[in-house]
Write a structure and sequence with these properties.
Elements: E1 13-14, H1 33-49, H2 55-61, E2 63-74, E3 84-93, E4 97-106, E5 112-124, E6 129-130, H3 135-148
Antiparallel strand pairs: 1-3, 2-5, 3-4, 4-5, 5-6
Length: about 170
């Protein structure tokens, strides 16, 4: 996968460092839950730009992709001084959808802060309806997906939310 920086221990594509901004910190002194999704979204934009799915894609081809579903797990607090990076892996792709996995990690100490699993759908902005990816984009997505398949599925993929009860 030549168009991405890869994290050597996971094989996931990785963003440059991202800074935590003061407005992301809530009254608990850590990143607010909504801003985790914002950080994931910023990371996704950085990585998808490398395969041609950037803001200019919307302007030049009048197509985009929308989030359909996502599941975020908060595993460890991130604070204002923590530099972070996002890692992403495509779990599956078809003509109109991308199923991907993201991890937010501390950029220096490498601990995992949060994960996000999501499905996005490709949209024709003229009709605002699902549409197949153009051939060039689909080829890049399929190549990224193939490169990801040599790795174990990340822990937490497909988890169902609910209160886990111990048997009594």
């Amino acid at each position: 996968m030549t168009q991405f920086d890869l994290c050597p221990d996971t094989g996931l594509a990785i963003t440059p460092r991202m800074a935590i901004r003061p407005e992301m910190i809530d009254y608990n002194g850590h990143v607010n839950v909504a801003f985790y999704v914002k950080l994931f979204d910023e990371g996704l934009d950085m990585l998808f730009e490398r395969i041609g799915l950037s803001e200019s894609y919307v302007r030049t081809r009048n197509m985009s992709f929308f989030a359909m579903e996502l599941h975020v797990r908060y595993l460890r607090e991130v604070h204002l001084t923590d530099p972070v990076q996002a890692r992403i892996r495509i779990l599956d792709v078809d003509a109109k959808r991308i199923h991907y996995w993201m991890e937010l990690i501390h950029a220096e100490e490498r601990w995992l802060s949060a994960t996000m699993e999501s499905i996005s759908i490709h949209i024709d902005m003229a009709t605002r309806k699902p549409a197949p990816f153009p051939d060039d984009i689909m080829a890049r997505l399929e190549a990224w997906h193939r490169d990801s398949q040599c790795r174990e599925r990340p822990d937490g993929v497909g988890q169902v939310i609910g209160i886990r009860r111990k048997p009594s």
